[in-house]
Write a structure and sequence with these properties.
- This protein is of the alpha/beta class.
- Helix content is 43%, strand content 14%.
- The chain has helices at residues 12-15, 34-45, 57-70, 86-99, 126-153, 188-213, 242-249, 256-259, 261-268, 295-308, and strands spanning 25-29, 49-54, 76-80, 105-108, 157-162, 217-223, 226-227, 253-254, 279-281, 284-286.
- It has an eight-stranded mixed β-sheet, with helices on both faces. The protein has a two-stranded parallel sheet with strand order 7-8.
- The longest helix has 28 residues, at 126-153.
- It is globular and about 50 Å long.
Length: 310
């Protein structure tokens, strides 16, 4: 039996069974398909007020309608958010803060995978911008609201960055700080791994800062697993380097319900209370790569990211 009592085959509903999230508010990015949709549904099922931060508003409204059909009392709102655009992130946060809602849980879930070389509207390599930098800015701008909520509610705030085992397959340097936008250095799978490594380093450095400030908020990263509909069904395994397949191959292919489990576990379960700056996989604590534990790299990334969002 694992320390948590759950495993790779546990579903999001199973790991949150009998947990009452009434009174909690969560922002979940990327909820129009796959594990994002299931994460939003299960949090709503447990009574959490879910704010869906999405790029595709039409698809999001369909997801919201499906959740409400299944759970008539669910509290779900849809707000437009394009994480590849800093202007969109700032607009989203401004609108959310204007709503006066509290914020207990932030799940940085949205992501793109192994795209050809493209730059965002802010001239940042698209995978780095979408998977990591947009979430870095979003988290930074929402922190004051989360701190206020944690103080007033006396409930622990939780920030979850969805990473992947792809973080083990990145550039030798870990992060190409001086070559982020250099197409001649670009390798789509290493760029993907770089963005996912950045998510772990972000959570680690954020956790350190929160602890140093004595704030009642935790930050952790999770690996959801290899999901049937997330990568395989979209043909993204085409051209995957053999050594990356070896990394991914040790994990069983999960259903969406199983893939969303670790995120929901870290977001809601009492067992996770007080755990900060850790990496979770299969609903248990796990070990990231050596680069994922590099505190100097995390600090360097933080400083680099702060300059990019200025």
């Amino acid at each position: 039996m694992s320390p948590s009592g759950f495993s790779a085959s546990s579903t999001a509903e199973e790991v949150t069974h009998e947990i009452d999230g009434t009174g909690l508010t969560a922002i979940v990015t990327g909820t129009t398909n796959g594990i994002g949709t299931e994460t939003a549904r299960v949090l709503a099922l447990r009574g959490v007020h879910v704010i869906m931060g999405v790029r595709n508003m039409v698809a999001a409204k369909d997801v919201k309608e499906a959740i409400l059909k299944e759970i008539p009392k669910a509290k779900v709102n849809v707000m437009e958010l394009d994480l590849s655009s800093m202007a969109s992130v700032r607009k989203f946060v401004s609108q959310f803060n204007s709503s006066g809602l509290p914020l207990n849980i932030l799940i940085n879930n949205a992501g793109i995978c192994s795209t050809r070389f493209m730059l965002s509207k802010d001239n940042i390599e698209l995978q780095f911008a979408t998977n990591y930098l947009g979430h870095f800015l979003l988290t930074n701008l929402l922190l004051d609201t989360m701190k206020k909520t944690a103080h007033e509610s006396k409930k622990e705030g939780r920030i979850i960055n969805v990473s992947s085992e792809g973080h083990r397959y990145t550039y030798p340097e870990g992060i190409l700080f001086d070559k982020i936008n250099d197409e001649s250095c670009y390798q789509k799978w290493r760029a993907y791994g770089q963005s996912k490594l950045a998510n772990i380093l972000h959570a680690n450095e954020l956790a350190r800062c929160l602890k140093e400030d004595g704030v009642h908020i935790t930050a952790n990263s999770v690996h959801p697993g290899a999901i049937v509909t997330n990568i395989a069904n979209h043909g993204h395994y085409d051209g995957v380097p053999k050594d990356l397949l070896n990394v991914l191959g040790k994990y069983e292919i999960k259903s969406v319900q199983q893939g969303a489990a670790t995120t929901c576990y870290v977001a809601l379960h009492p067992q996770v209370k007080g755990i900060n700056g850790e990496y979770f996989s299969d609903n248990n604590l796990a070990k990231p790569s050596s680069q994922g534990k590099d505190t100097d790299l995390a600090k360097k990334l933080w400083d680099f990211s702060m300059k990019l969002i200025e």
